[in-house]
Amino acid sequence: xxxxxxxxxxxxxxxxxxxxxxxxxxxxxxxxxxxxxxxxxxxxxxxxxxxxxxxxxxxxxxxxxxxxxxxxxxxxxx
Length: 78
Known about the structure:
The chain is mainly alpha-helical and 78 residues long. 77% of the residues lie in helices and 0% in strands. It has one domain.
C-alpha cells in the first residue's frame, strides 16, 4: 500500500543514508522500522489487557503478579 507521510528533514536524511548503507529501499527501511516499533509496543497492549482483567476480577496488580508467579513456580522443577 502506498501512503504519504511527513517526516523531519534530518530524519529523512539519516534514513536515506542508512537505506543506502544497508542496500535496501527507503520503503523497505521504513516498513522494517515500523514493524519493529509496533512489535515493541504490542507488549504494552498485553500488559494493559492483563491489568484490566485483574481489575475486573477485583485483584490488585500485586495480587495478579503473585498468582501468576505462583503458577509459574508450581510448574517449574526445582
